[in-house]
Design a protein that fits this description.
By secondary structure, this protein is of the alpha/beta class. The protein has ten helices and twelve strands. The chain has helices at about 10-15, 20, 55-60, 95-110, 145-155, 185, 210-215, 230-240, 280-285, 290-300, and strands at about 1-5, 25-30, 45, 65, 85-90, 140, 160-165, 180, 190-195, 220-225, 245-250, 270. The protein has a seven-stranded parallel beta sheet with strand order 8-7-6-9-10-11-12. The longest helix has 16 residues, at about 95-110. It is elongated.
Length: about 325
């Protein structure tokens, strides 16, 4: 019987199917306080944050840790030794986030909701200024994991020219995407720039004054990754100078932003409270990768979505 220590509830919370439930025992443990003496387990399912009882839980015989979530920049990776396997629910939000980004780009190009009217306008049938189009527009994607792939798959049918950059020399998983190795080259001709990369030492503060200066004026910047990838002060200067015409920000640092922060009131910022991942099946999907991996683990097969603590994702 495989013993699963859980920071997220018991069987009914994790939705383990009946055929697997007969092979496992799920033991709910507290996030804070003390774990009862004598409790041991083979697997730990937890959240991608610094849970107070995490270190104690890891000392109870755990060999595999699964994180319910994607970003792990707030998880204490130093606690994961070479004898532990770490996985996460990578890719679970690829579809809703990519749809959110498409909506952001379309609403920017068509000036929605500003193009709607509530009274008779001075002009009918001819907007001023004219709308833009996504066809032949240049889309730059920083990060080509599950979200970047899903976004490229949706942008290409709109006739967009898609350029992407990832942390390896691997080819694009989507035909028709031009891969580059320089972030300056990535943004140089972009009309829309989308951040879907993990927060690492290499991406922290990457969007600074120097990089904004390499962009052509009027670009749309969309961040559905992590707030610290962008230098907020540099973004403000880029907005006020016209380099960035619109910033769609779904991830900030800190979260939430404090009252009075300039992003709440800037006319060219569309701020959302980290909701691009959400959809009606989001919470069930969070556990789907764990269930898939549980089958593999019981069959002694390699697991999916393995995290490399050295890389930070």
């Amino acid at each position: 019987m495989l013993r699963i220590l859980s920071h997220v509830g018991q069987l009914d919370a994790i939705h383990i199917p009946d055929d697997l439930a007969a092979q496992v025992e799920v033991i709910a443990i507290p996030m804070a306080g003390e774990i009862d003496a004598g409790i041991v387990g083979d697997v730990l399912i937890t959240t991608p944050t610094s849970v107070p009882t995490l270190e104690d839980a890891l000392s109870r015989g755990v060999k595999w840790v699964h994180l319910i979530g994607t970003g792990i920049d707030k998880f204490p990776l130093h606690l994961i030794g070479d004898d532990l396997i770490l996985t996460n629910s990578r890719g679970l939000s690829a579809v809703p986030i990519s749809e959110w980004v498409m909506a952001c780009m379309l609403s920017f190009a068509k000036r929605m909701p500003g193009s709607f009217v509530a009274e008779q306008p001075k002009q009918w049938n001819i907007p001023s200024p004219s709308f833009a189009t996504l066809e032949n527009a240049n889309l730059a994607i920083l990060g080509m994991g599950g979200i970047g792939t899903a976004l490229a798959q949706r942008a290409l049918p709109f006739g967009m020219n898609v350029t992407a950059m990832r942390n390896t020399d691997a080819p694009s998983p989507v035909d028709g995407v031009r891969m580059v190795r320089s972030v300056t080259e990535l943004v140089a001709d972009a009309d829309h720039i989308v951040l879907v990369a993990p927060l690492t030492d290499a991406t922290r503060g990457l969007f600074n004054d120097e990089l904004f200066a390499a962009m052509k004026p009027g670009v749309q910047l969309i961040n559905v990754a992590r707030g610290p990838i962008i230098d907020d002060d540099a973004l403000l200067r880029a907005l006020d100078s016209g380099i960035v015409a619109c910033a769609d920000i779904d991830a900030t640092e800190p979260e939430p932003l404090p009252d009075g922060h300039w992003m709440y009131s800037h006319s060219n910022v569309r701020l959302s409270p980290h909701v691009s991942w959400n959809w009606s099946g989001a919470f069930q999907a969070m556990y789907a990768t764990f269930i898939d991996n549980l089958r593999l683990y019981l069959n002694e097969e390699p697991l999916l979505s393995v995290v490399n603590p050295a890389d930070g994702y």
